[in-house]
Amino acid sequence: MKKLSVLFAAVMMVVSVGMAKAQKIATLDVMAVLNAMPEKKKADADIKVFLDAKQAEIKKKADAGQAKLKQYSEEAPKKTAEENKARETELQKLQEEIAQMQEKAQKDLQGKQDIAFAPIEKKLNDAIEKVAKASGFEFVMDSNSSAFVYKGGADATAAVKKELGIQ
C-alpha cells in the first residue's frame, strides 16, 4: 500500500511537471506598449487639458474666496455681530461650493478617462489576443505586475507593438 502511494505521488509529479512545461507563457510590458500608442498619448493630452481647465476654474473660485475672507477679517471689528454672522455663512457656502466643484471635477475626469481609454484598452487586448494565438502562448503576463515573480519566458512586447504598428 505504501509503495502504491509513493508510486502515485511520483506519477502525479511527472504529470504536473509535464503539464507545466507544455504551457507556453510570455511576458508583456503593458505600460511600454500603452505609452508608445499614439491614441494613448492623445488621450493623455486631452485629459491634461481638461484637468488644467477644471483646476483653473476651482482656483479662481478659491482665490475669490480667500480675497473675501481677507476683506471680511479686516472689516470684522467695524461690523455688527449680525453682519459678521451673515458673512461667515456666506464664506461657509462658498467653501461648500468649492468642495462640490472639486467633487464634480473628479467625477467628470473619471468619466472622461473611461470614455477615452476604453477603445485603447480594447485595441490593446485584441492585439494581445491575436499575438498570443499566433504564437501559441497560453498565458501572457504583465511584466510590471507586483505579483509577477519570475520572468524567464518569451516577451511578447515587440510582437504586440508590431501588431499595433508602433515602435
From TrEMBL:
Keywords: Coiled coil, Signal. GO terms for molecular function: unfolded protein binding. Pfam families: OmpH (PF03938). SUPFAM superfamilies: OmpH-like (SSF111384). Gene3D superfamilies: Skp domain (3.30.910.20). One of its GO terms (cellular component) is cytosol. SMART domains: OmpH (SM00935). Residues 1-22 form the signal peptide. One of its GO terms (biological process) is protein stabilization. Residues 55-111 form a coiled coil. Belongs to the Skp family. PANTHER family: CHAPERONE PROTEIN SKP (PTHR35089). This is Molecular chaperone Skp. It comes from Chryseobacterium soli. The lineage of its organism: Bacteria, Pseudomonadati, Bacteroidota, Flavobacteriia, Flavobacteriales.
